[in-house]
Amino acid sequence: MSFEINIEKKLNTFTLKANFSSGQDHTALLGASGSGKSMILKCIAGIETPDNGFIKVNDRILFDSEKKINLKPQKRQVGYLFQDYALFPNFTVRKNIACVLRNKKQKAKVRNLLERFDIVELADFYPRELSGGQKQRVALARLLAFEPDILMLDEAFSALDTFLKEKVELEMKEFLADYPGDVIIVSHDRNEAYRLCKKLVILDHGHTLEKGDLKQIFAEPQFLATSKITGTKNFSTIRKVDDYHLEALDWGIELQTTEKIGPEIRMIGIRAHDFYQVSDNSSCNSFGAKIVGDSQTPFEYQYLCQTKKKGPTLWWKVDKSAAKPDFTGSLSIAPEHIQFLRKKGEF
Questions:
Q1: What is the pLDDT of residues 171-229, one digit of tens each?
Q2: Residue 337 and residue 339: Cα distance in Å, rounded?
Q3: Element (H, E) at 194
Q4: Axis-axis angle for helices 107-116, 132-145 (nearest 10)
Q5: d(CA 157, CA 173)
Q6: Distance from CA of residue 67 to its chain's centroid?
Q7: How high is the pLDDT of residue 340?
């Protein structure tokens, strides 16, 4: 199983340019609202038509502007799970699943899917009688009945409360482990993408900014937009001092790096959890700071800090599994945790 997409489509404020591929992988699409994520899924499904380019699934051409191929949605063998699940309100659960079968007499297949998704007792219920998690399982069962070549999930968990979302996500992970085809997941939740996918595509104003191994991109983002999307909180423009030293201009501090600073580097990023407290400013990459604000969540302490320059505040987060910091006025950052970044828009 594999897919390949290389398309352009003019939208209101930018031109969507999507170019990525996969081979029997689970791929996450991450990007800010309006970056083109859902439009890509609609183009693959045939709901929208690109201006040019091509879309292939398992070497089968779904769209090719040069060859003038544009299969109708019902001919594409694409499974598309919408945010609201799009169940037919006047159909029971059983009929919602059966309605996509080519052979309407395949009762055994419907029964097997009801059992697989643990919804046998709901077979004669209508969508209005189901919870969010139950609706999702019905929608997935219907997609599997259709036997799609590729499965696409568009913000599939966004309508669920936190507890149910985590439960359904675990169920989804187990299901996807057995699914033989490619999967594309659109999400605003980077943690959700991290848990469910191996490949990642970062979209920024319609451009495919970064693509590849998900964990590698999280560990070493190349662009400001990618770093923000993957959770980094602290950024500064820089002045290169030498190959392994830089000045973080926004914070007024000098830092040492483990990697050589290339000419394309314009900024650095530091994750909030990567700062640690030190007793004084004598250690590598240590600097004076003061706390100007604090809060906490059930699982971490959060601090807003300022350096002596009094520039933008730094986010510092400490897991509550560790002791609460008795702050002495100095923070540090390990050289290997400094992200080298190109500015947003530099492709």
A1: 788 878 878 888 999 988 899 999 999 999 999 989 999 999 999 999 999 999 999 99
A2: 6
A3: helix 190-196
A4: 140
A5: 12
A6: 33
A7: 97
Contact between 54 and 7 (Cβ < 8 Å): yes
Residues 27, 256: Cα–Cα separation, whole Å: 35
- Cα 119 to the center of its chain, rounded Å: 29
CB atoms within 10 A of CB 345: 12
Tell me the Ramachandran region of residue 310: left when phi exceeds 0, alpha when psi lies from -120 to 50, beta otherwise. Answer: left
108, two tokens: 């055994």
The dihedral over CA atoms of 165, 45, 130, 29, expressed in degrees to the nearest 10, equals 10
- The closest alpha carbon to 235, from 289, 331, 302, 314, belongs to 314
For residue 60, give the H/E element and its range: strand 60-64
CB 263 within 8 A of CB 339: no
Which contacts qualify for 155-163: CB closer than 8 Å, 24 or more apart? Answer: 155/38, 155/83, 155/186, 155/187, 155/188, 156/81, 156/83, 156/185, 157/187, 157/189, 157/192, 158/83, 158/188, 159/83, 159/84, 159/132, 160/132, 160/133, 160/136, 161/132
Sorted by sequence, the CB contacts under 8 Å of residue 162 that are 6+ apart come out as: none
| Cβ atoms of residues 199 and 213 within 8 Å | yes
DSSP structural state of residue 274: G
Query: Mean pLDDT of all residues in the chain?
Result: 90
Q: Where are the alpha helices (DSSP H) in 36-92?
A: 37-45
**Strand runs (DSSP E) across 197-313, as ranges?**
199-204, 207-213, 234-242, 245-248, 253-256, 267-270, 275-277, 286-296, 300-307
Say what the pTM is: 0.86
Q: Are 200 and 213 in contact (CB under 8 A)?
A: yes
Paired tokens of 15: 């031109």
CA proximity to 6, closest of 65, 54, 45: 54
